[in-house]
Amino acid sequence: MTTAAAPHAMPHAGHGPTSFWRKYIFSTDHKIIGIQFLFVSLFFLLVGGILAMQIRWQLGFPGRPMPGGGILPETMAPGGVILPEYYIQLVTMHGTFMVFFAIMPLLVGVYANFLIPLKIGAHDMAFPRINMASFWAAFLAGMIMLAGFFVPDGPSRAGWTMYAPLSASAEYSGVSTGQILWCLSIVVLGLSSILGSLNYITTIINNRAPGMTWFRMPLSVWALFITAILGLLALPVLSGAGIMLLFDQTIGTHFFDPAAGGQALLWQHLFWFFGHPEVYILILPAMGMVSDIISNGSRKPIFGYHSMVFAIVAIAFLGWIVWGHHMFVSGMNPTLGSTFMVSTLAIAVPSAIKTFNWMGTMWRGNLRFHVPMMNAVGFVSMFVIGGLSGIYMAATPLDMFIHDTYFIVAHIHYVLFGGSLFALFGAFTYWYPKMFGRMMSERWGKIHFWLTFLFYNATFFPMHILGMGGAMRRIYDPTQYDFLKPYQPLNQFISISAFLLFATQIIFIVNFVGSLFRGKKAPANPWDDNGLEWTLPNPAPHGNWEKPPTVYRGPYEFSSPEVAEDYLPQTRKLPTDREPVLAPAAGD
Amino acid sequence: MTHAAVVSAMRPPFPAERGVDVYNKKLGMWVFLASEIMFFTALIGSYVILRFGAPAEWALPGKVLNIPVTAFNTFLLICSSVSMVKAYAAISHGDQKGLRMWFGLTILGGAAFVGVQVYEYTHLIRHGFLPSGFRDGSELAELAAANPIVYGQTIAGLYGSTFFTMTGFHGFHVTCGVISMLYLYITRVLPGKYTKDDHAGVEVVGLYWHFVDLVWIILFTIVYLI
Amino acid sequence: MHWWLPLQASTFAKPIDGLFVAILIITGIAFVVVEAGLIWFIFRYRQRPGRKAYYTHGNNRAEVIWTTIPAVTVVVLGLFSNHYWVQIKGRNSVPPNAYPIGIHAKQFEWRITYPGADGKLGTADDFTVRNQLHVPVGRPIEVHLSSEDVIHSFFVPQLRVRQDVVPGMDIKAWFQATVTGDFELGCSQLCGMGHYKMRARVTVHTQADFDAWMKATQEGAGS
């Protein structure tokens, strides 16, 4: 069945009776794979969060023993006091885990897997076994990355961006095994992402249900489709770069070694050529899912569906030609800086279209504030801050000042936490019933949202002020600098807010786990939504539909005058609807 | 739903609004090859940047690498691409015997290519050409010391880095291709499971094979000849 | 504690801070419009029984408006930014009379080479000090940045100047201090374990003080 990519495919298809292992562990069901990704990525989100708490402890209270830090080995935190080398490892691994093993798989691994077949009316992914291989490769990559903490000298100490030559030589960074593990893990993860992406792309192109035309696809599917294309083309570049870095450390190549004619900036070009599309991999699916949720919560069709699609495409396209804006002060040719500034500023336009169209969707709606909707509106309000603060960095002269300061830390967290993570909290709650057949608690969901919103802003907004003051990133002890000493109370405020923010997530964990067992049984369509997934029972069976559904309209027909209810499912046939004409299928 | 029902539901071609008139496996391979292009672009692009940004000139073509042997190897790989086309043509006419012969020849061609490459590598390493440059005290290091310009002595490290990485990863791709073709040969071709109407596997693995061939022609040109 | 940008101590500070304020105003307006709109909608259009939402798929005119306004704004912003960018970092931006200072970064210190009395780097009267950057006020300074090992970054917040120091590259950056005083030079690119303490004192002197310092230090170094 999957001979096409035989090197990566699993050799046997399961035809025997469904055992526990086949059903839940080595499953080829896209929904189970999505749920596997969900649990594993939530675990890594927690790991990333724990690392962040240690960073915040050190920044707020430098040199003081960390509560509970006594359990860490002497090489990391003797007596609970974080060492400089461990601090850099914390910073490096926090970024790595959050970007590669939490946010990216949460958005793509979980929701591309879970939603694409359900939302386009397919039985499963085009290549279910490749899909399973993709999950297990990601799992393996995560374990390799985690293993870094348990080898001599610990994990990489070069920052998540791995700037060479620091990352290329143990002589400079002081880490050898951990650095090699980082590279290996990223190469395996790249393979996983490519396998996933080719599955999503093929499935969306070829396996849509009758009547599910391109412009009847939900924006979440559009966003995941474009994201898959970005991942497909960006991850191999990272893999290539990771391999070169690995070879520099292991077999003595000189790609990034200036002494032998190699180029230090080559790494940055490769990394950011991957890295900027990656940024959009981390936000586009969130935008797509937020579009679905806002339309549902507003009980109104999405405002400007077509321009929303084109905005996604435009953002993805521009994402390929802006990588140099990470390198304005890197010593790159300043004329290139001007070019990259222009393309970067251009991204403000499609981003503005999306924001205003979300507002247009809410305008004159009949807003239902269920938990997903609250998180989605939280996403819009926070993404605006993250997007607007990007303009400061895009302006090259200003970037010269705020580059590599806390301003940029604030920016990335407004986009990735305020943006992606709020969207994810919405998405968790929204599709929870379809995953597990139960509802998450509404009340605790709301409490979680408001506390998160509050502490999140208290944590990250003051970082803008730190950045304006010139506070550099990745500084182990800010009190080393006289000009940063006065900011220490602010650092403490940020740290305490961060601890509270972390504590608030316990509510989410309890709500999430508790609802698995004690949540209210969910009806098939708890949010009165139009999407195909809500026509299935909870949880949806393997294979999804006995007979493929037929689609008569787009996914956002809320409050249509044609029906009495305020929603109109995509599969419901009105007397005026005609049967879709099937394009002749190529033999499968 | 029982498992049997699931399987039966998934077996027949799923009627869908198709985006392109290409079956899934073939489309999947095209998409996969797009990512492969980006992978090799990263490697080749780095090579170009490093070579043009290098502080000195690269070694002259043919001084370190053995062009005639590799030219023969290139010919071998092109031949295996041709035999792959022949294999596909044979099975689209239902010719099992032709498929067996041409597909087998393709595998042999690929395996021979890998064999020659392994020979080339051992030869180079014995003469002192490593990914890190010329080995101290080796034959090549002495030659380079005598003719630093001709052998690009100062940047031999870059030469070794890019040469071994690019050709090595290409060789890895050929090896993967040979293994998967061998697998198909044993499980599908020999038992005669491909028919005039159903030979997707041959077509899809053929796509991969032609891609690998194409990459080699580019690599041979820019690494060996220029 | 300080809630605003640092002291303006170089000629770059005015344009950069001006740009900051301009962007703050522009983004501030956008921010207020969006957030106020959201809050207004949240109250105004909250669910009420018996009401149905207004059924519309969009409005082309509205979309054209909110596409055009940001587009025009960013074009204008881009033009202004580029104007200053060329002045600050452009290939030919270094003033011809700039005073050269060599800065060699290594894990984890700054080695700063002064041209001595002849005002030229690479001559016999050059002398090098560690972690002390002394410059005269009111005169363009051209720093020649090089690195021993990994990438570092030359950053003095009050002077609003930052430039990565990349091994294998010889990068020139310039600035002109406008006030005298003591500042700190920090490494702003992660360069290893000691990154956090890779700092140097920056002292901006009057020309007379600078000459005196130079003379004293050179004699000290020479003896």
User: What is the CA-atom radius of gyration of chain C, in angstroms?
Assistant: 25 Å
Mean pLDDT of chain A: 92
Span from first to last CA of chain A?
Answer: 10 Å
Q: What is the tally of beta strands of chain A?
A: 0
**Mean pLDDT over the full residue set of chain C:** 93
Measured as a percent range, the helix fraction of chain A is: 55-70%
Structural class of chain C: alpha+beta
Q: Name the beta content range of chain C.
A: 25-35%
* Biggest sheet descriptor of chain C: 5 strands, mixed
Q: Report the sheet-strand fraction of chain A.
A: under 5%
Succession of helices and strands of chain C: HHEEEEEEEEEEH
Unreliable runs of chain A: 1-16, 584-588
Cα shape of chain A: globular
Largest sheet of chain A: none
Coarse structural class of chain A: mainly alpha
What string, H for helix and E for strand, traces the elements of chain A in order? HHHHHHHHHHHHHHHHH
Account of the protein in words:
The complex is a heterotrimer of chains A (588), B (226) and C (223). Chain A is 60% helix and 0% strand. Chain A is mostly helical and 588 residues long. The longest helix of chain A is centred in the first third of the chain and has 37 residues, at 84-120. Chain B is 73% helix and 2% strand. Chain B has helices at 3-10, 24-53, 67-92, 96-127, 139-146, 156-189, 200-225, and strands at residues 129-130, 133-134. The model of chain B is unreliable at 1-17 (pLDDT under 50). Chain C has 223 residues and is an alpha+beta fold. Chain C has helices spanning 13-44, 60-89, 207-222, and strands at 99-106, 109-114, 127-130, 132-136, 140-147, 152-156, 161-165, 171-176, 181-187, 199-205. In chain C, the strands form two sheets. Chain C has a five-stranded mixed β-sheet with strand order 3-2-1-5-8. Chain C has a five-stranded mixed β-sheet with strand order 4-10-9-6-7. In chain C, helix 1 runs antiparallel to helix 2. The two termini of chain C are 44 Å apart. The mean pLDDT of chain C is 93. Chains A and C meet through helix 3, helix 10, helix 11, helix 12 and helix 13 of A and helix 1, helix 2, strand 7 and strand 9 of C.
